[in-house]
Every structure is written in structure tokens, then in C-alpha cells.
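Work Package 3 (structural annotation) set out to generate three-dimensional models for the target panel prioritized at the project kickoff. During this period the team completed the workflow that converts sequence records into C-alpha cells, so that structures can be stored uniformly alongside our sequence database. As a representative example, we reproduce one entry of 601 residues exactly as it appears in the project archive.
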Amino acid sequence: MNRAMFFVLGFAVAVAEARGDEPTATKAGGRVVEGKVVVAGNKPIEGATVLFGQPQLSMALVEAVTATTDAQGLYRADLGKFAWSTGTIQAFVLLPGYKAAERKIEAGTGTATANFELVAEPWKETQIRMEDTSGRPVAGAEITCSLGGVIWSRFKTDALGCCRLAMPRYLGMRLSTEPKDARPIEAYLAGTKDDPASITLPVLPAIRGRVLEPEGRPVPNAAVGRWLTFEADGTGEMLPFFGGALAVTDREGNFVIAPRLDLRFYMSRPAPKFEALCVADPSFRSMSYQLFEPNRPIRMAYQLFDPNRPVEPMTVTLKPSRRVRIAISRGFVTSNRETQFDSEIWITPRKEIPDWRFFLITRDLRPKGGSAMPADETVLEEYLPEGIYQLEVILRDAKTYESLAKARREIVVPRGQGPLDLPPLVLEPPDFQKLVGKPAPEIDAIDLDTNRPVKLADLRGKVVLLDFWGYWCGPCVGNMPKLMELDRKFAGRPLVILALHDQSVQSRTAYEGKIATVRQRLWGGRELPFRVLLDRPDPRKPDHRGPEGAGTTIRRYGVNGFPTLFVIDRDGTMVGRVNHSDHERLESIIRGLLEKADRVN
């Protein structure tokens, strides 16, 4: 998981169909779930909401199969039309004033019974205020509150622009609103004690502008979006902002676009200071295999804006682009007919803006339809307007998504016409591969429980599994039960698992506040049975970056994606990195190292 791509725990949205009042007939092999909900004293409770989903998708709940208890506390839900209903099902019960209850229903067919007893617990209340750019309240705005794929409630702001939300603890909620003539807003609350008691949703106007030719003539039908991408067959597409914001200019070259404003009130990471509009003339849509005709250059431009502030009407002048060609060599990477490669190509303008990182143009090196064995050298051909860019290429294993090679270079595209051939780019091993077979770098972290420094040198004679993770990273916290099982399998053997958290948490109190939700939701209320370490703050961290994904040891190991797992031999030698989802390979490597240690002893 890349640092720039924060997974919001608990908000994986399932495809939700319209809620039906009457259940449909159960398909053969489908499921019906029924049961009773009571409170203290075995008293039945009316009006409790029962939600269902797939446990492996966390909070991917489905609105179409919610149920409500009657006066006797009874409910019944027909899940027969969902293919996943014969597998393990996760069920939740929500009722204001009571702690959220949950349980797993084992895989099977026919009717299953799931009873619940609710425990009284006050819900957390949060005041929400909406205000415009002048600080005036925005009244009458509708806000939708969702839990996974289920709409929990809808409410409107009052004359002061305010409303109140009550939510169960440890269950995150997503707020969404679409103010009139303004940018849509999505806000996320984690449901922990660290959530603020009140939040303000800024209502920002839509972005307006005009696209012109270099001579000043308006450009109709120009595409305005987040970035321009080309597939390997040459097909071009303008990709929208998150939330689907995409625009096309009218006959006078005017456009209106409303990128979604995303707010995460449970993270300390600063909001990005810059985003960019990418603009291209209409020709790229129909170019397909003719993309690289020298006589058909694309006219394009990009325009920076601060996504967190109002944007003044802008004028964007298209520039002729040049056909840029760069030979990319796989270098040391070998393949066989079982190997499939994926690639990422980032072309990033304006390198002097360190926190602005987006795909201006992307390409997948794999030919359309896939390729088992790509050529040793691939020619990257793109159209770029005049400017200075950073080119970054990452080659990955298509099955494991493991990084195999990478390279980075500055590209200077001067003004002019005709093709521009640049020197070849040779891919090199990623940083972590350079560590293999060498002494593992020392870690600089403290133990969560003892608050004392932990060093690899003190663990000689033991195999070490070093897991870089963060509370904010969904795959990280979702992988912990697998590591718990690994710890159980090798109990009593010379294996040490170190869960090294980034510098965004620096105390037990902060850790408990951040991890309470995932412990309850994903770990079954269990503590991690292995040592948790807190990385030391990185003094070289740029000021524009937040603490998430940063740390002294993280920088030392060259970690740029989470989770990242390293295996270190008993003598302190780096064995290598293992993909967090490849559990069989991880277990096999550890078992082999432990058996080798047994033979030596």
C-alpha cells in the first residue's frame, strides 16, 4: 500500500441495492438468518437494526438485507439472492444507547439462527457545522450518514448550519453531502474517543474556467479531469477525480467541475496543498492505434489548484505537445513463461512542489491482453507539453504485486516540434533488494509496553519477522490475524515477530486511541501477542508531510509501501521481503530458517 493511497478502515463500500420491504423467495442453497435481540434481563427490544455482510470485507455491509426487530425482538432476513450468503456471514446489531453487537454466522445453507444480547453504552455525539467560504452557515443541506454500504440516517442542517450525529463506538461512519452549486464532501469519523466533539465541513464552490488555443480562441469539447492515461494499444482516456468529477468544455470553451473534498478527521496527515486539473483537446479520444502519428500531437495543459480553498475562475491555454520516446530496459530482471509483469509509470510535473504527486500520464507496459514474456526493452512513447518532469517506472510481479525493479529520471521537454528521443532508462533493483544477503540495518524504535529501545543486535540467535505497519493502513491491520496465527504455529521456537509502527503514534495512550476500533472490529478484541514497536521520529521528514508512513527505521529500510514485511536470519542477515498476502511463502521461509537453525544446533 503506497503512502499516498490511504485505505480508510471500515469504509469498504459494497454494492448496495434498494432496500425491499418484503423478502424475495430464497434461491436454492441460499440463506435465511433469523433470531432474537434482547437487552439486560432477557427483555426483547424493538427497533434494533441488524446488518449483514462478508467478514473478509470488513464493513462491506449490504443495505438490501438489513432487518429490524419487532415488538418481540424478533427479526428475519432473506439473503438468498446473494452468492456469498452460503459462506461465513458477519452480522451486526445497532441500536442507539447500546454497544454495537456482532457475531459470525458459519457457512451453510437453509435457515441460520443468530441471537444477540445488547449491553447499554452511550453513543458518541458529534456536532456538524457547514459553512461557506465567508464563514456563513449553510442551512438546509442534507447529510447522509453511511455505515459501509448501508445508509444509516439522513438529516439536514438547521438555520445555524448545524446538526448532531450520534454513532456507536468502534464503528466508523462516512458522511456525504452535495451542497448546491458546490463541491461534494465526504468526511470520515472513526468512532473512537479521539474523534473531535465537533467538526466543520467547508462548502467550496465548484471550479470554473475556460480553455483557449494559444491564439486565444476557445476550445470546445476539451476534456477536463484529474489525469490523462493511455493503454498499451494507444487508447486514450481522461480519468475523473475521486467521486467521478469530469467535465467537457462548451462551445465557448467554458467548464465547471466539482472535485470531491475528502476529509478524514481521525488522521493527523496534512491535507494536500496542490492538485491539478489536466486538460486535453478532443483529438486524444479517437486516436487509438494512431496515437503516435507525428502529425497528430495532442494539445494539453495542466493547472495547479489548492483543493482545500476556493479557486478563482481560471484560464487554461493548451500547449502543443511533443512525441517523447524513451527506451526502458528491464536490466537485471529475468523472466520465464510463467512470469507476468505489471508496471507503473509516473510522469510528474513540477518537481519543486514536493507534496504534489499525481499521474499526469500513465501507461501499462504490458500489451493488451497480457503478456507472459515482455521484450527485454520497451519503448515508452508519450505526448508531453513543454516542461520539466520526473519519470518513475516500477516493474512488478503481476501475481504478487511485488516490486521487482524501478528507475527514476528527470525529463526536460523543450519547446519545439517533432519527436524527442531521450537516452535509455535502465531499471535497477528496488532498495530492499540491495539489503538481501547483508546485515539488516539496525532499528531505532521503542517497545510499546516497556518504553525501552529495541535493537536487532539483542535478538541474535532468533529469526526475526519485521512488519512495518500503521493504524491507518487497512491491509496492515487486516493482516494482523494472519501474523497472530503464525505466532501461534511457531510458539516456543526461536522466532520473534516485531510489529514496527510508524512515527504517527508515540505513546501507549495514543496507540490505544488509534487502535481501539480495529482491535474490536478485526482482531476479535484481542491484543497483539507479539511485540509492538514505535518508530523514532525521522528528523529528515519534510515539513509538508504528516507522520503517517514516516519514521527513522522506515527511512533506513527504504520502506515506501505498507505493510512491508522483512525476514531476518538468526545471525542478523537480511533474507528478503515477503508480500504480506503470500502467507504460504512467508510460513515456508520461516519454517526453513528454523529447521536450518535446529540442524546447526
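The chain has a mean pLDDT of 81.
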